[in-house]
Amino acid sequence: MVALNKQLKQINPETGFSAAARYVAQYRAEHPKASIVSLGIGDVSRPVIKPVLNAMHTAVDDLGSMDTFQGYGAYYGIDELREAILQHEYAQFGFTKDEIYVSDGTKPDATNLLELFDARCKILLPEICYPIYRNGAYAMGRKVYTAPVDKNFVMRVPKEHFDIVYICSPSNPTGLAYTRKDLKKWLAYCKREEAVLIFDNVYESFISSEDVPHSIYEIPGAESCAIELRSFSKKASFTGLRCSYFVLPRAIDGGLFKERTINRFNGASYVAQKGALACFRKDALRLIQKNVQAYKDNAAFLKHGFQDLGFQVAGGEDAPFLWVAIPGNTDSFAYFKMLLEEIGVVVVPGIVFGKAGDGFFRVSGFGSAKTTKEAMKRIANYYANQA
User: Fold this and answer.
1) In what order do the strands lie in the sheet with 360-364?
2) Alpha carbon distances (Å) from 271 to 51, 57, 61, 77, 279
3) Cα(111)–Cα(246) distance, rounded to whole angstroms?
4) For 304, phi and psi rounded to 5 degrees?
């Protein structure tokens, strides 16, 4: 029999998102009348805005006539979208349109970029991190290493050599963001070790702290060793449409990834890209910011609520996520099950994000204001009754 990828066996189905989702689905099936609200939601709760919808309707009509039909060809993204991304977000850093790639989601981007690098490269992740970095690397047969995080959940710079480093800032799951000081240390490491930093910056629109850069390229020299990922998913409700983008500086690959892309990807959906292009309109930017602020308001409400109950809480200021310590350092899956069964509230157990995440749970501000308040009310009542 043909040998299988043994690295896939390192993906633990018992401590992942899928395990938590299965348990919730099973509980719903067994308790069809139960009222369940979720603070674990990673999806959005606000619809795609009207200017974007209008642009996509026009794009659909384009496909109905061969005079305007769009087929194969835009492997790296349609030119006008790449130009808009450049002008609105990266022009001040000296990049060109050819260094911007449009794709169909940051989840595949974070993994697909590994195809640019030798299979023997050593990959470093924080011990608490978005599991797709780890599991995506396993799916490609790569070896992964982890580094501990400090009290602020910032990955500690190692003394040994690694080739590729992943950092998500603002962070999923901890909700905290790396400061300029933090990132300067990591860029210095990457330059010294001739390593590459894959910088997941999809929650950039949630940043409010002055000492947190909106782009890794705000730090001089980052263009020599950093690849930045962004997405329309959360800020513009593209979770179902799928459209992302990243900057791959020519200083890193010399344009080599273009050859890989032509042979491995036929481009993101034309309809989704035209919708993404409309996100840069002035009226659209205002509406998008309104949606982002609603999620930030939810996160702030949750943070105050948990803190009032005496929980230790991280995040919720520069990201829509909060990282909450479980009282008594209880096993995170056990706590997840308890909240679901006792009060019908769903959170994400911290073990999903690595062994060091046990003893914590993640909540998000992506729910509606109504469900967010209802969930917090139930949690507050539960602990009031325990007193």
Assistant:
1) 313-315, 321-325, 360-364, 348-349
2) 13, 8, 10, 12, 13
3) 13
4) -65, -40
pLDDT in tens, 183-196: 999 999 999 999 99
pTM over 0.70: yes
Q: How confident is the model at residue 301 (pLDDT cuts 50, 70, 90)?
A: very high
| Packing angle of the helix pair 282-308, 369-386 (nearest 10 deg) | 0
Same domain, 54 and 143: yes
In a domain, 116, yes or no: yes
Q: How does pLDDT run across 96-131, given as a tens digit for each residue?
A: 999 999 999 999 999 999 999 999 999 999 999 999
| Single residue among 281, 299, 325 that ends a domain in this structure | 281
Residues 263 and 183 in one domain: yes
Same domain, 94 and 124: yes
Distances (CA, A) of 217 to 187, 230, 358: 10, 13, 33
Range of the domain at 200: 50-281
Does residue 298 share a domain with residue 186? no
Side chain identity at 204, as an amino acid letter? E
226 lies in the same domain as 267: yes
pLDDT given at position 3: 84
Which amino acid, 299?
A
